[in-house]
Amino acid sequence: MISKVLKLQNVGLLQDATQGGAVTLAQVTAIYADNGRGKSTLAAVLRACQLGDAGRLNARKTIDSANAPEVKLLLPTGSHVEFTTNAWTTTLPDIVVFDSEFVEQNVYSGFEVRADQRQSLLEFALGDQTVQLKKQIDQLTTDIATQTGKKSQAERTLTGFAPPYNFAQFIALQSMPDAQQQIDAFQKRIEAAKNAQILAARKDPTNIASIQFDTAAVFTVLKTQIQDVEEAAEALVKAHLAKHNSQDFEDWASRGQQYLSGPDCPFCGQTIGGLGLIEAYRSYFNKTYADLKRQVTALESQVAAGLAESKIEAAVSAAATNTARIEAWKDQLNVTAPALDGVALAAALKQAREQLLALVGAKQRAPLESVGAQADADATTAAIAGITQAITAYNAAVQSVAGQIEDFRKKLGTENTTVLVAEIRKLEAAQKRMLPDVTTAVGEFQAAETERKRRSQFT
Fold first, then answer.
1. Residue 36: exposed, middle, or buried by beta-carbon count in 10 A (0-12, 13-18, 19+)?
2. What are the start-end ranges of the E strands in 102-240?
3. Higher pLDDT, 454 or 280
4. Alpha helical stretches, state H, 307-373
5. Burial class (CB in 10 A: 0-12, 13-18, 19+), 401
C-alpha cells in the first residue's frame, strides 16, 4: 500500500519525522514507543490520507512551528500521495486504521445497559453503515419511548373522564349536542319511577256529555193537525174564546168538559141542554185534541230543558276540569289540553232554543195548525249537530291525551332505574369528552400514538 514515508513534517510531535531520510515500510512494520511519542499522530495522518481530510492535519499542526503540515508518501506503483498547501493530492481509501477512534465510530453497543439487554450485551454492530443504522434504531427507540411517555401521560389525564366507557371507547365518542336534554329526560323518568304511586293516583281527563235532543219529535208535534174537529164548531168556540182575553181560558174551558155529567151547568146551575156552544165545545175539545194540547204544552219545558244554557255551562266546567288534570301531567309528558269554545257553543244553543220556543209559542196559540217549515227543522238540526260535532272533536282530543297518560303509567311499571342511571353516565361521559382540556389531551394522545406507530415501522 505505502512503500515509503518520504516526508512527515509539522504534525503534532512529528515536527520532522523523516529527518534521517525516507522511512521504508515493509509488508508488516511494527512501530512501538512510549506514550506521547507520536504513535496516535501517525495513525491520524494515515486516516486523514484515507479520507482526504485536510482538517484533521491542520488540527494537529505542531504548536511551536510556523510552517504548515506536509506529508509525502510513496506508493509501490511509484506514484506519490502528498499533503501540501493545505490539501491532499489524492486519497487512499483502502487504508484502515484500527485505533480508539475506530472503536468509537465502528464498534457500538448503545448508550446504556438495561436489564433486557444483558443477554445481548456482547452483540456489536461493526462497520460504518451498520453503526449508523444501529444509531438510528436507538434514536428511534428513544423517540418511541418519548412518544409512549406522552401517550401515557395523556392517557392518565383522560382515565378519570372515561367511565363507564373503556379508554378506546371514550376516545371514539362523538359530539352529542342534545346530551343534556337526554340526561334531563332520563332523570325525569327516574323521578317518575320513584313517584309511581303518586302519579298513578292522578285523575284522568274525561269526556264531556253531548247535547241529547230529539228535534224530530218536537217538529212532529208542531206539525200535528186534527182533522175531525168540525169547522163550524171550531169557529164558534174560537169566537167565544176571543171574547175572554185570558191566556188560560181555553185550557179552563177544555178541562171543564169532564164535569158536564148532567143537564145543568156545574158552575152556575143553569140548564145547558140544547145550547149550540156546549155542543161545539164537545166537538172542539175531544180527546185527541186534548192529547195534542198536552203535548204542545209540554213542548215548552221540553225545549227549555233540553237546550238549556246550563248544558253548555256544564260542558265548559268539565272542560276546565280536564284542562287542570292535563296541565298537571306537563311535568312528565309533553301534552296540551284541547280547547272548547264555550262562547260559540252557548250562542249556537241559544239561537236554536229561541227559534224552537218561538215555534212552540205559535203552536200553543193555534194547536190545530201545522207550525214550522222544513227549513226551520233543518236549521235547528244543523245547529245542534254543530254543537255535537265540536264536543265530539273535543272528546277525541281528550282521549288522545288520556291514551298518552295511560301509556306512561304502564311504562312506569317497567322502568329500570339502574339502566336509566347507566345511560345518564354514558351521556355525561360524552359531555366530558368534548371539554376543552379533554379534547386537547385526546389530540396529544392520538398524535403521540400516530408518531409512535410511524417510528415503530422503522425498527
1. exposed
2. 107-108, 125-126
3. 454
4. 309-327, 342-365
5. buried
pLDDT in the model for residue 291: 78
Identity at 252, one-letter amino acid code = W
CB 106 within 8 A of CB 127: yes
Q: Distance between CA atoms of 69 and 9, rounded to whole angstroms?
A: 6
Residue 439, amino acid: T
Q: Rounded to an integer, what distance in angstroms lies between the CA atom of residue 143 and that of residue 457?
A: 13
User: Which cell numbers hold the place of 329?
Assistant: 301531567
Per DSSP, 74 falls in state E
- The pLDDT score that the predictor gives to residue 449 is 77
Buried residues in 266-275 as b, exposed as e (16+ CB within 10 A): eeeeeebeee
User: How many Cβ atoms from other residues are within 10 Å of residue 79's Cβ?
Assistant: 10
C-alpha cell at 47: 486516516
Residue 37 has pLDDT above 50, yes or no: yes
Cβ neighbours of 367 (radius 10 Å): 19
User: Is the CB of residue 191 less than 8 Å from the CB of residue 420?
Assistant: no
* Residues listed for the chain: 459
pTM of the model: 0.47
Instruction: Decide if 57 contacts 11 (C-beta within 8 A).
Output: yes
pLDDT in tens, 226-270: 655 455 556 666 677 677 777 677 677 666 666 666 666 766 666
Q: Nearest Cα to 250, choosing from 196, 296, 212?
A: 296
